[in-house]
User: Fold this.
Amino acid sequence: MPGDEERATTDDAAPKTGNSATIAAAFADGPAYVPYLAVGDPDYESSLAYVEALDRGGADVIELGLPFSEPIAEGPTIQGAVVRALEGGMTPDRFFAFVEELDVDAPLVCMTYYNLIYQWGDSDGPRSFVERAAEVGLQGLVVPDLPAEEADPLREACDEFGLDLVFIVAPTTEGERLERIMEQVSGYVYVQARLGTTGAKSDVSDRTTESLDRLRGYDVPKAVGFGISTGEHAERIVAGGADGIIVGSALVDIVADGVENDRPTAAVAERLEALSRELKAGAERGFAARTADAAPGDAR
Amino acid sequence: MTETSTTETTTRPGRERGREDGKFGRYGGQYVPEALMPAIEELTDAYRRYVLGNEDGFMDEFRERLADFGGRPTPLQRAGRLSERYGREVYLKREDLLHGGAHKLNNALGQVLLAKYMGKERIIAETGAGQHGTATAMAAAHLDMPCTIYMGERDINRQRPNVFRMKLNGSDVKPVTAGRGTLKEAISETMRDWAATVEDTHYVIGSVVGPHPFPVMVRDFQAVISEEAREQAIGKAGDLPTDVIACAGGGSNTMGSFAAFVDDGSVALHAVEAGGSTLEVDEAAGVAPNSASLYAGEEGVLHGARTKLLQDSHGQIMESHSISSGLDYAGVGPELAYLVDEGRVTPVAVDDDAALEGFHRLSRTEGIIPALETAHAFGFLEEHADELGDRVVVTVSGRGDKDLESVIEETDKRDIAGAPDMSMFTGGI
Ligand SMILES: Cc1ncc(COP(=O)(O)O)c(C=O)c1O
Assistant:
């Protein structure tokens, strides 16, 4: 699995930037493209091919969704993916097997809801899930229904096993709340671009800039997600100061289209790879524009 | 006017539980997306100031509106024929006589008024049986707030009269098609709406479920049921009841009926859940043909709280079932889960058949047509009367007008002693 050697050097990582050196490295040189897919959508084998296509398309970190029956933070697109994956027989055990089988370079982050983490294995609490996640080579977790207030047990388990714990910061997060989250976060902070649930949008929210401004002083990579669907969005968001972009629904739309139109797995994988390249190129253009702007800015 | 009851309740420790931090032993908490947390903090602050502190006379206005608009207090009625049948005094706490036809208005009016005090501009709510949706729609019309109600598609079909009522009161009813189209999906969908509109919208949750402060706040609004019943019982029977029986879906009727009695160790508290068709669970299909989360559930995290849930071995939430939409939910309030673990509340499951028989029995012997949810409590009384003390209070949480179509259909499928022949109506009324 990727990152095994790096995890050995975990102790060297600054506490603020997290446990896993591989995720920090993914953000170190240039903007990070962070795609999301629900694992097992629409079945185990196709899903393997799809995630590998994201990796070929230039993913710097991959968020793997472990489907939960009540995905309250998801809009209709990802809800659809979750339903297909559960109907396809995805379970936490199969999810871990999937991660072990996956052949990709990008570090992997599991995105799921707290009940699945809490219930897994014999331990009372999240510890055995995190232990197993570390064993199969996952580098981090994002848990959309776990605010900082309830996160201590999971944070401890992640520290014990060298995983990053990514938190979401919403447009409504400010002041003390923001500080509390920034004390707990590691790896990267997931900047939610707009209020509401996940879903591809045709525009970029103004509130992203405000959120990035609030986060400016914190020494953690900032990845923006919720609504990004094109290379142009990616460009604008990175030009506006993001260290990375997170894209889910726009990719899931391609998988859903494949299911609806009965397209061959290879054709769907190709489209996922192509959109990935577009998004990554957009992020890089945005980064180039930002660094070009910043250079003369020093003398201003 | 309100001073005496406020000080009286605050000296009783049971009423303090969870108010500070939303924890009930291992249950409770705030497991919600970050986008909602600032609103939940704002609500917690408003709950402390207005509900607990009566700031700006909030509680005075609430009580006055509950009396004038809602029709409180509701009677505690001695049920003569049931008393005779079971050989003990049976009293009915008549929440079916509250405006709207169920206990739900106590909470809905409290929360819509609170939203108004908080300066919110819009109300959203979920509903299962449509009773909470109806109560919220009424309160929203009464207090001039725009209102959107999410309701599972299956429940819309089961509870059509309530859909009409919500629309008549000017609310927008949005069908939810996910999953089995029942209460669980409606709550998830309302939370999604809230995540997008949280800055100007208040989510009026319909039971003692969800993240803190909802479980304590809804309990405090519903506690008026047992505050009245306790005084009425002492007045009528000269003593506290020996038993209080209430049906439990999310648990607002139960917590409301129990709250004032929790510190009275001599009063046995029975929470009656929907046993559905059976307590057996189909793991492979992810279906629990019941809604008995207190009786058969396991600890987990759903819709913002840690509580007892119907879930499979992986932690996926099961589809629940009950003949009554209002009990058809895979979770239950965290305080009830705690009181069950502590041995203070006894959970019991009553199946669809016994509930339907209870429905017909109460209709024929007492002239009260109960909601199918409520009918479960009378199923319990029939099956367990011998084990009860001699002064029993049963909360009639709602009236059954909304259920007539389901009852006709379900009665026609069964052979129920004493039920009228309704076959001529089975095509619809
Ligand atoms: C009449 C009636 N009783 C009971 C319930 C169950 O809800 P809760 O357990 O929150 O009281 C409902 C829910 O809709 C209801 O309409």
Q: What stands out?
A: The interface with chain B takes residues 68-75, 79, 83, 86, 91-93, 113-116, 118-120, 144-147, 149-150, 167-174, 177, 181, 192, 195-197 of chain A (CB under 8 Å). The CA atoms of residues 174 and 214 of chain A lie 8 Å apart. The first strand of chain A starts at residue 32 and ends at 38.
